[in-house]
Prior knowledge:
The complex is a heterodimer. By secondary structure, chain A is of the alpha+beta class. Chain A is 20% helix and 43% strand. In chain B, a hairpin with a 5-residue loop joins strand 10 (174-177) and strand 11 (183-187).
Amino acid sequence: MNLFLRAAMxxxxxxxxxxxYGCDNTTETVNSGKxxxxxxVSPTAAELITVSQPRIRATAPGQTVxxxxxxxxxxxxTDYALTSVSFSGASAVEIHETSMEGDMMRMRQVSHIDIPAxxxxxxxxxxxxxxxxxxxxxxxxxxxxxxxxxxxxxxxKMVEAMVDTLSEHHKHE
Amino acid sequence: xxxxxxxxxxxxxTLGIGLAWYYLPQTGPDLETNxxxxxxxxxxxxxxxxxxxxxxxxxxxxxxxxxxxxxxIYFGFASCPDVxxxxxAIIASALKQLTLxxxxxxxxxxxxxxxERDRGxxxxxxxxxxxxxxxxxxGTPDEVQKVINQYGGFFIKVESDSAMGYQVEHTSKxxxxxxxxxxxxxxxxxxxxxxxxxxxxxxx
Lengths: 173, 204
């Protein structure tokens, strides 16, 4: 019985996630019409959002996926979101969220990460992270790699991330 | 009549046995201590923990092969980007703080819950990347599920739209089996290397 519940829960949660993801996509399609033409150029999210401690976990031999982490600080009065990331060394880059539900460690893809006005978003192990998929050449400790972040206003920002083993839980950031 | 009394007594007795059989296995493992942030549980064959056989490549490996050594077990998978490498690195960090003599009596084991993607040399290379003392073992998904269930854990393969293909959702505890194979220390998913070191040292 318990086993059945445990087996059924992820399925239900997956369906819910797909549902939410579907809704988000619709909202985005509605909102992503052309921005109103303005005479005065206002600062973009890429200019307003600061990135601290960008880091990527080094890969083990033969490992072709890894996670990138960072803190995104939004000191402006506008809500933004991180909508996509690109990295030349990966065949695909996605935004994922890891969570502990009861005793279960779950990971699922999300469409974006909110970076609220006068707030921040933390990408860290056990929470939101950027998934680098299909890393043909692996990533070695001590190197740096360039990631391009795209925000909800379509502005882009490049960050240099340190490749490290990330051996402890980053609790104090 | 005498016959009725005997019948009722027999019925009550049978009912009692039935109830005991139904309830006793549900009382769970015998919790020993819970002092330093982890739980120590007595192994009860058929109920909690116990021996198992999985494979390092083609070679069968059983827990009882390591009697006399402290065995540190973590269940995870190599495509896990986050929790598994963090935990393996924490175990490795604790192992690196041991003296060579202490390390001789410790056997760290990484059990892959994703045998479809982790096999043979890849699994071994992944496990030893964190610490050279590790061995990487696995089996069929059913065999591995049976072993993790024995220790109170669970995993499930979940299909996803991600370019990674399916995900494996799982419990993320670390198990330390005592040298005599009688006790299991269960460490939480968010343990520190200090906690791992404390738990390892207390078993040496």
